[in-house]
User: What shape does this take?
Amino acid sequence: MSAAQSSSVLVTRVDGTITPVITDHLEEGLRVAEREEYAAYLVEMDTPGGLLQSTREIVQEFLAAEVPVVVYVTPSGARAASAGAYITMSAHVAAMAPGTHIGAGTPVTGQGDKASEKVINDSAAFAVSIAEQRDRSTEFARDMVREGTSVSDGEAVRTDVVDLVAPSRGALLDEVDGRTVVVGGPGGEREVVLRTADARVETHDLGFFGELRQLLASPELAFLFLSIGTLAVIYELASPGVGVGGVIGVVLLVLGFVALSVLPFNVAGLLLLLLAAALFAAEVLTPGVGVFAAGGAVALVFAGILLFRGELGVDPAVLWPTAVVVGGGAVLAGRLAWRARRAPAPTGHEGLLGRVAVVRRVDGETGQVLLDGAWWAVRGRTTPVTQGQRVRVVEIAGLELLVDTDIGDGPHPEQQR
Assistant: This one.
């Protein structure tokens, strides 16, 4: 038996869904705690659940940890639901704050439906194996998966789901001080006495980029970014302008691919997404009756259904409206691009036709106006021009503009473009 080598405790915080980002963060923190021989690795948790594969990876790391792992469900009102329950039970010491609850570990699909019986059986066996290894209630572990059972902090202690209830972090560290836990995996197990009373607390945070990746770890956001970003880039390429659409599209695509780098995805879904992009591009470049856009919308729906693996999926409330909006946007973009390509491009002197200006100077029957930063000689087509008169260019005769002098009141020349 050995005592913990340090009077410091490494603390990290888990809020929100359990994703691969959280898995990487907890594994990194555990490596730091082991390498620097902290007295304990404390995970303060409030989660509604998350990905089963990510949960399995975290549990495997905690069960084989070389440093005592303490999971604390906090603050009051927090929960360790679904994935959080598995992780809490896998800790060497499991604690809860007053007013918290744990359980409801029934696996669901990406659309929120109950998973297949095969998945439920596998998850129940997984939960029971955790409980057996940590001497916790196997009955609760089984029921939380099969029946969706959830219990309060007090009942969790009474039924051997967790070890204790503590009102604060300091009280928790004081209460677990002196406890003996077994760390290490099979073949390398050893007993460690916790020395956490008055321990120095050091934090291990996600950081800005970790928080950003966690924020983007959403199937719905990834699908929206990729869909709308693709449409924006296609339209910008089909009808080049000031580049705002292209810039926004590229930014959205980058964010979408960052989300894909975090979430487990299927290649088939990604290929369908590329097919949808190609069909939308065809609609914008060769607009017709909307056949390409309709095909792109259908491909986009199937891409959303097949894009992510396991229990992940795009919510239908996001999937269908996005496909309809992007498909309709492709039709509209095609029409706008078609009109822009067919519109005559005013270049050179022809761009002056129809422009309105004010006569600045008069010399006999001719006057001078300022258009596009250049002075032009003007002559009235039917009547002479006068200083201060508003005129409209109707014809170009060499280096002289013929103007209509009877144009009445209208917009200021600077607004006439």
Summary: The longest strand covers residues 8-15. The chain has three domains: 2-209, 218-342, 348-415. The CA atoms of residues 175 and 325 lie 57 Å apart. The mean pLDDT is 86.
